[in-house]
Write a structure and sequence with these properties.
The chain is 30% helix and 19% strand. The protein has 192 residues and is an alpha/beta fold. Strands 1-2-3-4-5-6-9 form a seven-stranded mixed sheet. The chain has a two-stranded antiparallel ribbon with strand order 7-8. Helix 1 links the parallel strand 1 and strand 2 (33-38).
Length: 192
């Protein structure tokens, strides 16, 4: 069985990374699966608390409804810095609130972050999917890739690459997890 190539997009209301309906539909029409990542100022520990988790989830659900994102797919939240054990209390509070809102609406939860952060959140039952960020120096990331403890991995050394005039990060899914990373799948064409 072949799997569509992954495409992950993130961003907030003020970000060029935010995916809109026409782009979302064009990517799916091209046969490319999509992952949605919520990322505002998720690049420092001070951002993380329960109120931010709830706010990010509510906004992500609003955007998901606008683009008709299918229930059962995942909405990821980013932890886009090298989180340490001392940071996990704040990050966990964020993800408890984020996961509660996302799951109550019928979606699954993912984390875009380090191998360490993903492992802790997965063990706590707060995420369903793990996406390893493109920073091999982040705590636990190399080990997570080496031991196949991830669902999607931004391939180290292949981020911020120029492809047809666009800056892209090359992602790959973990074949040992049967290609399930909470992606939104392109619809199948009749007869294919």
């Amino acid at each position: 069985m072949t799997h569509p190539a992954p495409s992950a997009r993130s961003g907030n209301v003020h970000s060029w990374k935010q995916i809109g309906g026409p782009e979302y539909n064009s990517i799916l029409a091209a046969g490319i699966a999509v992952a949605i990542i919520s990322e505002w100022a998720n690049n420092h520990v001070g951002y993380f608390n329960a109120a931010a988790g709830k706010r990010d989830a509510e906004y992500s659900l609003h955007r998901g409804q606008q683009r008709n994102q299918s229930q059962g797919s995942a909405i990821y939240a980013a932890v886009d810095f090298d989180a340490e054990p001392a940071h996990m209390t704040r990050i966990t509070a964020f993800f408890k609130a984020f996961a509660q809102e996302i799951r109550a609406a019928g979606y699954k939860v993912g984390c875009y972050g380090s191998g360490y952060t993903n492992g802790k959140l997965k063990a706590a039952g707060l995420i369903d999917y793990e996406m390893i960020a493109c920073s091999p120096g982040f705590l636990g990331s190399k080990d997570a890739v080496r031991t196949s403890n991830y669902d999607v991995w931004q391939v180290f050394g292949f981020c911020d690459q120029n492809y047809m005039g666009l800056s892209v990060d090359w992602d790959t899914f973990n074949p040992l997890r049967k290609g399930d990373w909470g992606q939104i799948l392109p619809s199948k064409k009749a007869g294919k």
